[in-house]
Design a protein that fits this description.
By secondary structure, this protein is an alpha+beta fold. It is built from 15 helices and 21 strands.
Length: about 500
């Protein structure tokens, strides 16, 4: 089971009511990438969206409506397993495909209804309404044996994976009236406080990476009463909390705050950087100490190419921007996310083009062109001293003596599509070059990754990465096209007053 926990399920950190004033109204636009010349690249973007949908549809089992984790480039062999993140990504991709008129409304409704009906009958942790992390996409059965190697799988509930399924269910409830009741039945049953550790060592608490419902035989699993106070004891992953702000796992805090199940204090309890006296981190941070809703916050940032950027754990694009697919973070929090998102994109672009001189950019966990799966990122933008690296050689960034040369850089298209929400033309140009110069594109859209110096390509589609592409295109082709379904007045009233309080130390 330990190998499974190194996948996207656990990619974050080793991982108050006083803010809640009512704000109504229509969500503001947070799509700087949509301010380009109208229609300039519409045909190209639509072709990419349509082909990406082709691979997502090929991954979906016709009987269950569950989408596989991945499929080969010729769209014939599915992985044999799926996760809540994958299922959520399929649901929001159906909505985007409908809104972009790739599929008609009837097909969208039927696909979503089939998936929701399967979810409704699938085995899960009933007291919290949370699903386990691995299922057979052809049957909906919980996986207890890993199909690739025959290893035993102990059913695990991942907080970050459930965040994406929960967000997708809420989005579907707003976007598809015919499936609203079924989506809300699943969404309303979810208890986000099942992950919330109030007794963590920092004020404000933190979310566990997840829990097992049976003894996994691991030293970092602790048998504890459920944090909700309901149901039998659980084996919490006590060795892992999501404790960094720049993380895809912040969606769990968002959903918990929206539902009133996790307090706003938890949002501010996560690290922007570690404090300056933690001298083992990637580099000395710059910043100052602030306080929000009674929680002390060190507003730290890292310095890279003259920019002050609040780092993630690994410096990857999806840590920074995946939640922004749903929540208009830049508009609702202009002094924090509104500063950091464009700076992170700029830093990734400058790393690929000017620092490492790969000629291409966009770094995030993805298929390894040499085989398997690996975390990629910009080392200088990550708190992790061991780093997510941008090349196969794992070239380490040392702020005291930065590298003068890098190796075989690995670029993943989904990172550039996420960046398109902030640098539309630069991202399109980058992707256009990837398609033209490598065997990086097929009937299902972009292949998952390219090693740009060797030319080696990961000829595979990952459903999560393809669904991030669909979500980003949904927000770019129709400005805020996907966000508008999630960022309702209810969500804005609960979340905007919290995230809008803060000012990061990010600056150009």
């Amino acid at each position: 089971m330990s190998a499974l926990l190194t996948r996207r399920t656990l990619l974050g950190a080793a991982a108050g009511a006083g803010a809640a004033m009512a704000l109504g109204g229509t969500p503001a636009s947070a799509n700087p990438g949509g301010r380009g010349r109208p229609g300039r690249h519409d045909a190209q973007l639509m072709r990419w969206a349509s082909d990406t949908w082709t691979s997502i549809a090929a991954m979906a089992d016709e009987s269950t409506g569950l989408v596989a984790d991945n499929i080969d480039a010729d769209l014939t062999t599915r992985s044999g397993y799926t996760s809540p993140t994958n299922i959520g990504g399929y649901l929001w991709s159906c909505v985007v495909a409908r809104d972009l008129r790739i599929i008609n409304p009837g097909e969208c409704r039927r696909r979503i209804a089939r998936t929701l009906a399967t979810l409704d009958r699938m085995e899960k942790h009933e007291p919290s309404g949370m699903f386990f992390n691995w299922y057979d996409e052809a049957t909906g059965d919980v996986l207890r044996v890993w199909p690739d190697d025959g290893n035993a799988v102990h059913p695990f509930v991942s907080s970050v994976d459930m965040g994406w399924l929960g967000a997708a269910l809420y989005l579907v409830a707003q976007a598809d009236s015919s499936n609203r009741k079924a989506a809300l039945r699943l969404y309303d049953a979810m208890r986000w406080d099942i992950f919330y550790d109030r007794g963590w060592w920092r004020p404000g608490g933190a979310n566990y990476g997840g829990f097992w419902v049976e003894d996994p035989g691991r030293s970092d699993a602790g048998l504890l009463p459920p944090t909700t106070g309901e149901g039998p004891d659980l084996w919490y992953h006590v060795g892992h909390h999501y404790d960094t702000a720049i993380s895809e796992a912040r969606m769990v805090n968002y959903l918990g705050i929206i539902r009133g199940q996790i307090p706003p204090e938890a949002y501010f309890a996560t690290f922007r950087t570690f404090p300056p006296d933690w001298d083992w981190q990637e580099m000395p941070p710059v910043g100052q100490r602030e306080e929000y809703v009674g929680i002390p916050v060190y507003e730290g940032a890292y310095t890279y190419r003259g920019m002050h950027v609040v780092p993630g754990w690994g410096g990857s694009m999806f840590e920074e921007l995946m939640p922004d697919l749903f929540v208009p973070e830049a508009a609702w929090a202009p002094n924090s996310w509104g500063q950091n998102h464009p700076l992170h994109v700029r830093a990734q672009r400058e790393h690929g083009l000017d620092d490492a001189r790969y000629g291409y950019w966009g770094f995030s966990p993805c298929s390894n062109p040499a085989g398997g799966y690996r975390e990629y990122g910009v080392d200088a933008l990550g708190l992790n001293p061991d780093g997510y690296f941008s090349d196969q050689e794992r070239t380490n960034y040392d702020w005291r003596n930065p590298p003068t040369a890098y190796g075989d850089g690995v670029v993943t298209p989904h990172a550039a599509f996420l960046a398109m929400m902030y640098e539309r033309d630069a991202a399109i140009a980058n992707l256009t070059r990837l398609e033209a110069n490598f065997d990086a594109y097929g009937p299902g859209g972009f292949h998952d990754a390219v090693a740009v110096r060797s030319g080696q390509v990961a000829h595979r589609h990952l459903s999560l990465d393809q669904s991030m592409i669909m979500g980003a295109l949904g927000n770019v082709i129709r400005p805020d096209g996907m966000r508008r379904w999630f960022a309702t007045t209810e969500v804005e009233r609960a979340l905007r007053p919290v995230i809008g309080l803060e000012s990061f130390s990010a600056e150009a």
